[in-house]
Request: fold
Amino acid sequence: MKYYIQTLGCAMNYSDSERVAALLEKMGYDRTSVAEETDLYIFNTCSIRQKGEDRVFGYLKNIIEWKKKNPRLLVGLTGCMVRRTSSKNSEKKDQDELIKKLKPLDFTFRITEAQKLGEVLEEVRPGLEIPELKEAGLSDYLRIRPKYTSSFQAYVPIQIGCDKYCTYCIVPYARGREKSRPMEEILAECKTLVENGCKEITLGGQNVNAYGKSVFDKQSGKFGQNEDPFITLLREVDKLKALGLKRLRFTSPHPRHFTDELIELHTQLETLVNHIHLPVQAGDDAILKKMNRQYTVDEYRRIWKKIKKVLPGGSFTTDIIVGFCGETEQQFEGTRRLYEEIEWDMAYLARYSPRRGTTSFAAWEDDVSREEKARRWHVLNEVLERCSIRYNESLIGKTLEVLVEKYNEETGECEGKSRENIVVQFPGNPDMIGELVESKITKALTWSVKGAEVGI
Ligand code: SAH
Ligand code: SF4
Ligand code: F3S
Reply:
């Protein structure tokens, strides 16, 4: 029997899919990369914007056709769109709303209840032989050992949920309250990874630098009172350099907890990269307040200045939302001017998408028109392109260390990322995949740079 997982959304979802894949393989399923020939199709969904949900509805239309050809095909949904673990055979009152709404769906499962996957599969297909899973009794799905997609790069979740409640954001509702994973467990996962050849680890969470500081974490008493648990964790993971770890990243931090100590740590830990991604969301204090971001433009600016001073050659990136409820032309101008001032090297620009269940959805009208959101997005994107190419040009003549991710047979080029998280392409060979190769940068493009190979 074959399985196929379609993942949408953030790195956390891709990591969750690795855990689901591990469970399915323990049940005897084999992975296929051909969606049409699968017996089990799982969507790992994202709700951050309407666009992501619409994509799932689009895919499900195709699946109606596939089900006609292959009546054995089972279709399940997990990730941020799901509220309940249930199946089409569950009692109506226990069913997730999506089961009632979407015909081709056989079951849904909350990702934090991934261990129940066997049970829901049995409910929709009685007689399906599902072996007793060792993990089934686990109280925490993060203890499922993932089937990692890469042998040299890994994303390790260190926290689930989010307690920040930014007014536009669905994550606290989709992912629940913020809880940090015990440090010993994270370190054990990282150690096994590095012993098996992993060179780059990304520690992940929605509020990653608040690791060990949520209400739940404090009540648990597991994360100490004095030292910042996130700093301790970074120091501990860095020690894995003795076993072969080369790079340590984290995503996404929140400005509220971005301390000077954390900035300075970047120069003290050998593996911690010189790239910081720090979402700003808006460049206007009134909008930031309305978004419940809990910082001002000046507070963000102070962090940026400190980062520039401590990590002068590093890269600095962000996330921005345009067209939030009530955002005036003048307030948007504030964001544009802040972009011109800070010159982020890269940014993810989003148009505000109202999400049912959030504060902004209930409290304010989505009153910036589609056209105006698009215009603001394009204005900002122009500044972004300019800043991105300027940063890439500053790399010309420098030798960057690239962790090679792929090889393109047609062009004969390898592609990977530098410590600054810049995509580098250079002439190479397929044996370089998974290796750290030095490349001297010769050309800057908007979203990547070209280089010559120097050596391993
Ligand atoms: N925890 C991270 C980001 C998580 S979501 C943080 O606090 O920054 C990733 C990005 O999606 C956000 O940074 C934001 O820019 C965008 N986003 C979240 N909700 C959105 C919404 N309702 N409409 C448009 N963009 C949104
Ligand atoms: Fe969403 Fe804000 Fe939490 Fe980020 S910090 S996940 S934007 S609520
Ligand atoms: Fe999307 Fe959920 Fe991540 S809403 S961005 S998949 S946490």
